[in-house]
Structure formats: structure tokens, C-alpha cells
Write a structure and sequence with these properties.
Elements lengths: L7 H69 L12 H12 L13 E5 L4 E4 L13 H7 L7 E2 L3 E3 L4 E11 L5 E10 L1 H7 L9 E6 L4 E5 L14 H5 L3 E7 L6 E8 L5 E8 H4 L1 H47 L6 E3 L5 E4 L1 H6 L5 H8 L2 H4 L3 H14 L18
Antiparallel strand pairs: 1-2, 1-6, 3-5, 4-5, 5-6, 7-8, 7-11, 9-10, 10-11, 12-13
Length: 410
């Protein structure tokens, strides 16, 4: 029979529970930080989508107003007005000046305003005084109208205006004779810097970006500006790959290497796209601070918990070593040693006690003297011993006689 010590299994359960607690805490912290990260990404997406909606509204309102004025101008021109040496030159110029006064601020009035060209590309009228005559027959947007490739409003590729070097696009419409033949175009220059001035008023963080691109993904306007990329096309742009009129994507900009979350929208039915972007380092800035502080604190807690578990494990191993030593000493003690409850039921008996009762082994002792009545010759002494155990929890210098199996009393 073994000595009854505190169950080492309970120590193992405590360690296991501690380990589960530490892992659970670490998992909870990781899930919490991951959820916060997803929430910040979702918030950034909503914010860029809202900004892109504002950008679309601004660009569409600007183009719609210009297109309305160009259409109105075409409606006021007669067929004979589109021939060389027109009779109504002064009247038409006055009309163009009146219409130019209603153009949006983005239109470069000082570099052409509203201009009308004949079928050969020669300038007929414009809203600007002292404008030298020019020919635009070689321009792509003019050829598109002349060849019938552009039926409605045409938006040109970005061009640099000489001598200022400013970037602009032209918005133009085709003029026809009564029989449908090509008669010329009416157009305006739209200065792209004015879009950038509007974009500068929007706040998308320190590393955010706002851009306007055409259907070929040529950069028309951007804030912060990228002069080296102005007018350049991106053939592998995600918008072209997606083929959608609106959407969201995350990409590291090939221009500056900054990873951003982009929302894009097509501007009405026009071949224009607006993009609003927030940099990852901006929309995850607070989350990364939380990751550093909370993650650091969590790591310290986990390490301390593991250290405490290591100390507890060392204590358990030490306790087990001492238990083995103590059990060896007790089992081989020269005096009889036993462990029992208040009723005298034995939990442990060493071999010395068994020999004192003339038994060959502990099992032989328990078989013959397993009940306390068999070990006490005087029942009164058994009752006294039991009372002492219940009341005092410790019994010292108590003497009693035992009656052996053969009737001998010791």
C-alpha cells in the first residue's frame, strides 16, 4: 500500500489549464487585432468609395456643362457659317464670347476659349481676341470627327500647350452640313491643372492620392502631382484588367512604390475614370500602434505565464523527487509506520509494522488486521484513539495493546 500524498495529477491539470489559458489569451488577442485590421480596411474602402463618388460628380458636372455649351453653339451655327469668309463673323464671335463666360473654371479660356474649325482644320471663329489662325488637321481628335469615328463628344488624349507647357485635353463635337457631310468641329481646351486644384482640397491622408485617367489609362491629373508620369499610359492597369466601371483594388503604385487601397469609378458614359486612394501606412497606422502595444503587452503576459509554468513544473519535479526519497525512508524505517483515517482505516502500512504483527508481508497484514477492531485489544482504546484523531488531528505518545491473530497481546 502506498503513502497518500497530494495527487500529482492535480499539478499537471493546473499546468495544462495554465497552458490552455495562455494559448487562449494569445488566440483571443490575435483574433481581436485581426478583426480591428479588417474593420480599418473596410472603413478605408468606404472612405475611398465616397471620395471617388465626389470625384465622379465633379468631373461629370464639368464635362456635362461644357458639352451642353458646345451643343448649344452648334445649334446656333448655320451651314454657311462653316465656310471660309463667313458673313456673320462678328455676330458669331460675340455669341462665342457670351458662351465662354459661362464655361467652368477648368476651361483654358485664355488659350482658345471656344473655337470653331472648318472641314479643312482651319480656324474660323474663337472667343479670344487676337487669336492667330491655326490648322488642326493633323490632330487625332480632328481626324476622328472627320473620319466618323467619333459621333458624340470627343475627349482627346492629354497634350502640352505651348509655350506654357501646361497639360490640357480638348472636348469637341462634330459639325455637319445639312446633307450630313463633315463641316468641321467646335472645341474647347480643358486645363488639367484645375482638376488638380480641386483634388488638393480633398483629404486622403498624408500618402493618399487622387487621379483622373482616360480610357487608355493615360494620367490626366493627379494629386500629389507626378510630372514625369503626366500623359503616360499604363497598359497593365488593374482597371483595364478588371473591365469594370467601378471597383476597389489594392496595389503598390509603380510610380512611387506606395501600397494603397484604390476605389475607381467611370465618369458617366465618358471615357474617363476617377481614382481615390488611401495608403496602407495611413489607414493601418493606428492598428499598427495597437499591434505594437497590445501585442507587446500580450507577449510579455504569455512569456511570464510560460515562465511561471516552468517554475511550477520544476517544483513538481522537485516534489516528486522528494516524495520518492521520503517513501523510501518510510517504507524502510525500523519502526512501524502507518497512515489511516479517523476510523482507523489504513491507507499505508510499512513492512516493519507488518513484521511486528508477525505477518510475512503488508498484504498479509491487511488481510488479517485490515479492520481496526482486529488491531486493538481494548475497544475503549480504539474509541479514544478515534476521538483524538477527530478532535486534535494529531496524536502523540498514545499507547495501546494489539491482539494478534493467535490471541497473543502485544
Amino acid at each position: 500500500m502506498r503513502l497518500r500524498f497530494p495527487n500529482p495529477f492535480s499539478f499537471g491539470m493546473v499546468n495544462a489549464a495554465g497552458l490552455v489559458g495562455v494559448l487562449g489569451f494569445a488566440l483571443l488577442m490575435a483574433v481581436s487585432l485581426w478583426q480591428e485590421r479588417e474593420q480599418r480596411i473596410a472603413h478605408a474602402q468606404v472612405e475611398t468609395e465616397n471620395i471617388s463618388l465626389v470625384l465622379e460628380g465633379h468631373a461629370q458636372a464639368t464635362v456635362d456643362k461644357i458639352d451642353l455649351i458646345l451643343t448649344d453653339v452648334l445649334g446656333r451655327l448655320h451651314a454657311e457659317d462653316l465656310h471660309a469668309a463667313p458673313a456673320r463673323h462678328a455676330e458669331i464671335r460675340a455669341m462665342l464670347k457670351e458662351k465662354a463666360a459661362n464655361l467652368p473654371e477648368t476651361v483654358a479660356v485664355e488659350i482658345g476659349g471656344i473655337a470653331v474649325f472648318d472641314a479643312n482644320g482651319d480656324s474660323l471663329y474663337d472667343s479670344v481676341d487676337a487669336q492667330p489662325p491655326i490648322n488642326i488637321a493633323d490632330r487625332e481628335y480632328f481626324r476622328a470627327h472627320r473620319e466618323g469615328r467619333s459621333r458624340g463628344l470627343a475627349i482627346s488624349a492629354p497634350i502640352q500647350i505651348r509655350p506654357s507647357g501646361a497639360w490640357a485635353i480638348t472636348l469637341s463635337r462634330r459639325a455637319n452640313f445639312s446633307d450630313g457631310r463633315f463641316a468641321g468641329i467646335v472645341k474647347v481646351f480643358v486645363e488639367l491643372a484645375e482638376f488638380e486644384n480641386f483634388y488638393r482640397t480633398l483629404n486622403l491622408g498624408r500618402h493618399g492620392a487622387v487621379a483622373l485617367r482616360d480610357a487608355e489609362m493615360r494620367l490626366l491629373a493627379r494629386h500629389p502631382s507626378l510630372p514625369a508620369n503626366q500623359g503616360q499610359a499604363l497598359e497593365a492597369h488593374p482597371i483595364l484588367a478588371k473591365g469594370n466601371e467601378r471597383g476597389v483594388y489594392i496595389e503598390a503604385s509603380p510610380a512611387d512604390g506606395v501600397k494603397r487601397l484604390y476605389s475607381f469609378r467611370r465618369v458617366g458614359n465618358y471615357p474617363l475614370y476617377v481614382l481615390a486612394a488611401i495608403a496602407e501606412q495611413d489607414y493601418l497606422e493606428e492598428w499598427r500602434k495597437h499591434l505594437f502595444w497590445y501585442g507587446g503587452a500580450g507577449l510579455v503576459i504569455v512569456l511570464l505565464s510560460l515562465k511561471l509554468m516552468q517554475v511550477a513544473r520544476y517544483g513538481l519535479l522537485k516534489w516528486r523527487s522528494n516524495e520518492r526519497k521520503y517513501r523510501y525512508i518510510v517504507e524502510n524505517a525500523p519502526i512501524g509506520v502507518f497512515q489511516c483515517d479517523a476510523l482507523g482505516k489504513h491507507f499505508f502500512t510499512n513492512s516493519t509494522l507488518a513484521r511486528q504483527f508477525d505477518c510475512d508481508s503488508v498484504d498479509d497484514f491487511l488481510a488479517k488486521y485490515g479492520t481496526p477492531e482486529r488491531r486493538f485489544a481494548d475497544p475503549a482504546k480504539l474509541a479514544e484513539f478515534s476521538d483524538l484523531l477527530r478532535n486534535q488531528k494529531e496524536v502523540r505518545e498514545f499507547e495501546a495493546r494489539a491482539q494478534l491473530d493467535d490471541g497473543t497481546v502485544k
